[in-house]
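Folds abound. A case:
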Amino acid sequence: MARRFRIPAISTGELFRAECKAGTPLGKQSCSIMAQGGLVGDEIVNQMVVNRISKTDCLSGFLLDGYPRTKPQAEFLDGVLSEKNLPKPTVIHLEVRAETLVRRISTRRQCPRCLRIYNLLSQAPRTRDTCDEDGAALVIRQDDTEALIHRRLKAYQEITGPVITHYRGARYHRVNGDRSPEEVFRKIARSLAPTPRGAGCPRCIPTSVQNISNR
């Protein structure tokens, strides 16, 4: 989607992991929380997102992956967009069964150097356990163990439900994430099809509210 609409894709998870790798105070705090399967507090997340979307590559729009996760985050984002005179977000809700998420996430692998993500089921590397780009040994992320995945799903159900209610309306689109990547892509692309002139466009802040990133 980022390539299709020529906008940056911003994953809050990747922002956190970058801070963790850099060893910043914010990174250490976030890393400790995520390692236990918890969700980082709204104040920290909000500030990181504002810092990122204020960069020049976001002037034509951006895609937020995994944010907002709570209703206070959604309300905060509403205020930020209003202050910047930007349109309300288009929301893509990827709905996936719990058993599918556990299977997908537990088979996810990541390169510790370039941070490319693989999946042993759907996007395996050419050589087992080795990154196609730089040959580094792939690793299992700390938060991708089955026990932590179930804990994250429980937290999602308790916290993110009100976000879906907050965004329901003309700009809210529910997509069945149990389908193939090609089917999901086509569905999202149709949801973000260009609108009539003056009515906004899909490049203006398409935002993703989803269970858990399950590439």
